């Protein structure tokens, strides 16, 4: 259903509910009960809006009675008053809502609202002339009073004692019905916006709103294992999956953006400009999938050149093409597997050890950390000893200016900006290296160690 048809359907439902509520209100007023036409109209509109939210908001295959069966007083009886603070304004949910409001605002036609306002004023002006003709002397002051009463009646605040003649009461009822119709249209539009927001979010057509997150472009078995690995990591990182699939393949705790990773608009919805890293995965093992990954990297670099990109490559012969696309890091799975199998043939058990370290076996999690300031100026042997004694961590390499020094000479001395890769049971008091810091460190050249 299109947005216009949805709004018309909602408005029609709410107007019918208002009319039925008005009939109840007329009967109540005839018996001199306190709640009259206006009150029952408003209650009917609220009930109808609550019901249509249940019908439209949860998609196909869901139970439309899931909201109706839950009394609204159950929610209202325990109100939660949010603490308004600056971080709330920058939360992902607020940023998503703001994105949808901008999207809907760009589709609105200002001339429609001007025409609607003109129509309301003309209707009330005609009603004011009729009220003055039925009830008041034909003067400018009487016309103004009737027009003011007409506006108040449309807004639900008109004085019922202002008119006394049968013709005046009929005009007053028409104004009340007109006001309720306007309220129904506005409520229908607002309900349609809420439903549109929920449907777009559920279909992956929203915007992530995250910052300093990881964007996963494409989906395959490696990406699925990556999500599972990140879920168990000590350093929690928000993840957004951008893939051209029908539903979220990663589960509810990962934000899903349905789209094409080579499209700048879809990358913007995934928050690529605010991301700390982008991981690109081929859809399958073909050469065409590698070509698509290269186009994805080029699109990312065009939109967010400072975001670090890491790509999985199927064919080792495509490595030069990825490098020309300015990828920051490559993982050629076939090359890694072949090298590991070759070393395991020479040194039995090596593949199990490497797999245990990389996959986070018991006591062997792999971390890239920021070294404590007190380690600056110490030799590599002293740093290795301190890491082992202070943090129960085994040093694997020191990284300087984007270059990794594995097993450096004993006179290698730590400098400012160095970080390290360690194997440890957990991070403990060690600080993980921020992904944005990785990109900064890679931009400086590292001098070769002396010795």
Describe the protein.
The protein has 451 residues and is of the alpha/beta class. It folds into three domains: 3-77 and 88-202, no CATH class; 214-335, Rossmann fold, CATH 3.40.50; 360-442, Regulator of K+ conductance, C-terminal domain (Alpha-Beta Plaits), CATH 3.30.70. 52% of the residues lie in helices and 12% in strands. It has 16 helices and eleven strands. The protein has helices at 3-30, 37-56, 72-76, 86-89, 92-107, 110-135, 140-154, 166-202, 221-231, 264-269, 287-303, 319-324, 333-346, 350-358, 380-391, 435-442, and strands at residues 214-217, 239-243, 255-258, 277-280, 308-313, 329-332, 365-370, 393-400, 403-406, 419-424, 431-432. The strands form two sheets. The protein has a six-stranded parallel sheet. It has a five-stranded antiparallel sheet with strand order 9-8-10-7-11, covered by helices on one side. α12 links the parallel β5 (308-313) and β6 (329-332). Residues 73-86 and 440-448 have low confidence and may be disordered.
Query: How many DSSP E strands?
Result: 11
Distance between the termini: 72 Å
**Class by SSE composition:** alpha/beta
How many helices does DSSP assign?
Answer: 16
SSE succession: HHHHHHHHEHEEHEHEHEHHEHEEEEH
Overall pLDDT metric: 78
Largest sheet: 6 strands, parallel
Return Rg in Å.
Answer: 33 Å
Shape by Cα distribution: elongated
Strand content: 5-15%
Q: What multimeric state do the chains show? A: single chain
Q: For the largest sheet, list the strands in their spatial order.
A: 3-2-1-4-5-6
Low-confidence stretches: 73-86, 440-448
What is the helical fraction, as a range of percent?
A: 40-55%
- The total tally of domains equals 3
